């Protein structure tokens, strides 16, 4: 079981902002998962990686792909209180889900 | 209700690593919270900030303070698979908890 957080590279977020958005995606996707997936992932030590996709369109497409694979997902729209316009798509949390299934979607993406 | 993630500044973590550790702390502290605090915070849109403390000792002390205030907390020790020695304390997730209570512990800390 793993979680993959995919970041919108085109925004070049500052690191504190990036960390907060990634955390938001991680909790949101966790909450969207079933109890069995949650428990298995917690017991495995919450493995996760943070990767880049090119832009918001890529994140939206990945969310669609995840839904088709029944992978829990959380697309994060920034609230617009600080550096970004409200509604900006910053990142996408995927999983916890079996690594082999998530990797089909995100295995080719570079680490942040 | 808010969550505050406190980062060990002395490590100067690269941003992908930082984001993953902050996400770990956020999920860990969320799981440690009661159902009522979880629900109230989710409904509020999961407000969170990411701040710095000086070093691992400061994080350990904050964890003790949080326990005394009955704030859910998750101290993150790195698994040591990449850039850090195993067991390195990287960050501390606090809350969800009422903002006024968390701010007593972390209100003076600078944003990442």
Question: How would you describe this protein?
Answer:
- The structure is a homodimer of 112-residue chains.
- Chain A is of the alpha+beta class.
- Chain A has four helices and four strands; from the N terminus they run βααβαββα.
- In chain A, strands 2-1-4-3 form a four-stranded mixed sheet.
- The model of chain A has no long low-confidence stretch (mean pLDDT 95).
- At the A-B interface, β1, α1 and β2 of A face β1, α1 and β2 of B.
Summarize this, please?
With 112 residues, chain A is an alpha+beta fold. Helices cover 43% and strands 24% of the residues of chain A.
Strand content of chain A: 15-25%
Write the element-wise H/E pattern of chain A from the N-terminal end onward: EHHEHEEH
What class do helices, strands and sheet pairing of chain A give?
alpha+beta
Coarse morphology of chain A: globular
Ends apart, CA distance between termini of chain A = 20 Å
Number of helices of chain A: 4
Strand line-up across the major sheet of chain A: 2-1-4-3
Largest sheet of chain A: 4 strands, mixed
Which regions of chain A have little confidence, pLDDT < 50, spanning 5+ residues?
Answer: none
Quote the average pLDDT of chain A. Answer: 95
Q: Can you give the helix content of chain A as a percent range?
A: 40-55%
Instruction: Give the number of DSSP strands of chain A.
Output: 4
Rg from alpha-carbon coordinates of chain A: 13 Å
């Amino acid at each position: 079981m793993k979680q993959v957080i995919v970041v919108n590279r085109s925004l070049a977020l500052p690191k504190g902002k990036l960390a907060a958005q990634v955390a938001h995606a991680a909790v949101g996707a966790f909450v969207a998962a079933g109890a069995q997936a949650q428990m298995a992932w917690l017991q495995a030590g919450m493995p996760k990686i943070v990767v880049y996709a090119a832009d918001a369109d890529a994140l939206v497409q990945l969310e669609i792909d995840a839904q088709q694979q029944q992978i829990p997902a959380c697309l994060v729209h920034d609230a617009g209180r600080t550096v970004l316009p409200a509604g900006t798509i910053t990142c996408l949390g995927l999983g916890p889900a079996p690594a082999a299934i998530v990797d089909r979607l995100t295995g080719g993406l570079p680490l942040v």
